[in-house]
Design goal:
Blueprint lengths: L1 H8 L4 H13 L9 E7 L7 H20 L4 E7 L15 H5 L19 H15 L5 E4 H7 L3 H9 L1 H8 L5 H6 L3 E3 L12 E5 L4 E5 L5 E5 L5 E3 L1 H12 L3 E5 L3 H13 L6 E5 L2 E2 L16 H7 L2 H9 L6 E2 L5 H14 L5 H4 L3 H5 L13 H11 L4 H11 L9 H18 L10 H15 L7 H13 L6 H13 L7 H8 L1 H12 L7
Parallel strand pairs: 1-2, 2-3, 9-10, 11-12
Antiparallel strand pairs: 4-8, 5-6, 6-7
Helix pairs in contact: 2-3, 7-10, 8-11, 10-11, 13-14, 17-19, 20-21, 20-24, 21-23
Length: 527
């Protein structure tokens, strides 16, 4: 452990860089609350999404890196802002008319449109916890409603009241003139309607622990700021939460940079140090536009997991978190193969270098090991050439190529076969377009048949690959890229394909020669 900690102190991996910053922030003594606190936030007006996964996964990676650098105990709070007033009825829920009747109320005071829990907020909180549990995250759930109503936030809320003017003076310059005239950090909960009110505060009463606000009819109402009678606007709320819970680390998206700065100032006004933060870049859709929950563009967690293991999604989150990345279906195969490549190389690395391998962070220091995998792209092309969605047919070729591999002995590979079939069915099969070989290409294909004819049946992938190169060089292609593109378009019906040596070794020399002869004869390869 001492040796591994020494390696970690010199690691270039970003989770360790973040953990080092946090260690400088908290020092070497256990905080008064008894632990170093990591937090992730969740707005439960919608269901958990891929950004939720990304934030919790990345935070968990930093937490694990910190645990290697320090013996200080840690906790991760998954905080749900379920006391927020619902402003818009989501498009993807039942009983929308019923929910519309409760707009403006805290989410935990709105009936569950699904009819399963005591409120809409409780329903989405349950979905969040099930979501996080499915991925095996280690966390403690925190509800804004419970924290406000139980009194856990009372002391911090009274400090907000006491320092009301200083907080207002920080916030007002960021608002327009109209909003400045009515802004208050406190949002009272109306006793008549139960709605979260955006109303002017006439007077904060520090001694009484109350605010006096103006109702729509002009009447003045006095209400305590404690006990769940008020909640805070979200930027003061974020700062108050940091102070009340003693949050030491929280990351957030690039779109919240200004909010982090503002909340950090408010946190300092409240007498606390803001947490160490990390700003991650936002995801882009296939057109390079920002992914929006309301637009529904991009890719959901459920969609990713239909085509690939969760570890490949974790790798996507791990890699370059401060760079904007396209999050769409076509990034999945590359991330699967990158994950497999990192997993395969891990045992061969020196111990000091293993902690810089992404799979160390993805698997919290204990990546699995399996020797007999194939690349995801190879499996996709095998399904494509076989025109099959039957796992047993693909395993016929795999077991011949890797005699010791079975679905039982190679569970990672077996899962990949199922994922590849799903991807082939949805994204390759509907768009395959075979073309006929030109006369010049038919000559090159015949040369490849003759070359393969002269090779032993147990030739390895590298040997085959070099011969495919040699055949391409013997024919008048502008460069080898055109030779391989011709093979892909003629044999696979697509513009991109696998490393041909590996594919031929897997599919079999005799089978490939038969395929080439059919292409030379200009038969229909789509059948």
């Amino acid at each position: 452990m001492t040796e591994l900690r020494e390696y970690a102190q010199h690691s270039t991996a970003w989770p360790f860089a973040e953990a080092q910053l946090l260690l400088k922030h908290v020092g070497d003594k256990v905080p008064a609350k008894g632990y170093v606190l990591f937090e992730t936030g969740y707005g439960p007006s919608g269901l958990p999404h891929i950004g939720t996964f990304g934030e919790v996964a990345r935070t968990s990676m930093v937490r694990h890196a910190f645990s290697l650098l320090s013996d200080l105990p840690t906790k991760l709070f998954a905080f749900s802002d379920d006391m927020d007033g619902l402003r818009k009825v989501p498009d993807n829920i039942p009983n929308q008319e019923m929910v519309a009747e409760h707009l403006g109320k805290p989410l935990t005071e709105i009936p569950d449109p699904f009819g399963m829990h005591e409120s809409f907020g409780h329903h989405n909180n349950a979905r969040l916890k099930a979501f996080l549990d499915d991925f095996g995250f280690d966390y403690e759930f925190k509800s804004s409603t419970e924290c406000y109503k139980s009194g856990q936030f009372d002391a911090a809320l009274l400090t907000v009241l006491e320092r009301y003017d200083a907080i207002i003076n920080v916030i007002l310059p960021t608002l327009g003139a109209e909003r400045q005239a009515t802004y208050s950090p406190f949002l009272p909960i109306c006793e008549k309607t139960g709605c979260v009110l955006q109303v002017p505060v006439i007077k904060p009463n520090v001694e009484a622990g109350t605010i006096i606000y103006e109702e729509e009819d002009g009447s003045a109402i006095e209400t305590p700021v404690t006990g769940g009678h008020c909640k805070l606007q979200w930027r003061p709320d974020w700062a108050m939460r940091w102070a009340a819970l003693g949050v030491d680390y929280e990351m957030s998206g690039k779109d919240l940079i200004d909010s982090v700065k503002l909340s950090s100032k408010i946190c300092q006004i409240l007498g606390s140090q803001p947490p160490v933060g990390f700003t991650y870049e936002l995801f882009l859709d296939e057109n390079g536009e920002k992914i929006s929950k309301s637009k529904g563009n991009g890719l959901s967690v459920e969609e990713w997991l239909r085509y690939a293991p969760q570890e490949s999604l974790a790798l996507f989150m791990y890699q370059k978190p401060n760079a904007a990345k396209r999050l769409f279906f076509d990034v999945i195969p590359r991330n699967v193969d990158d994950y497999l490549s990192h997993l395969e190389s891990y045992p061969r690395l020196e111990p000091r270098n293993r902690i810089d391998n992404p799979v160390w962070h993805i698997h919290a220091g204990h990546p699995p090991h399996e020797d007999s995998h194939l690349s995801y792209n190879i499996l996709l092309n095998l399904a494509s050439v076989c025109h099959t969605e039957d796992k047993s047919i693909l395993w016929h070729f795999i077991s011949r190529y890797r005699p010791n591999a079975t679905p039982e002995s190679a569970p990672i590979l077996d899962q990949l076969v199922a994922y590849a079939i799903n991807y082939y069915r949805d994204f390759i099969k509907p768009f395959k377009h075979y073309r006929l070989a030109t006369d010049e290409e038919r000559q090159a294909l015949q040369d490849l048949v003759d070359t393969l004819d002269g090779m032993p049946s147990d030739s390895g992938a590298e040997t085959i690959q070099s011969q495919v190169y040699e055949v391409g060089n013997r024919h008048p292609f502008p460069d080898l890229k055109f030779w391989f593109q011709a093979l892909y378009e003629i044999l696979f019906g697509q513009s991109h394909g696998p490393r041909m040596g590996s594919f031929i070794a897997l599919y079999g020399l005799d089978e490939v020669k038969d395929l080439l002869r059919r292409a030379i004869a200009r038969e229909n390869l789509s059948e």
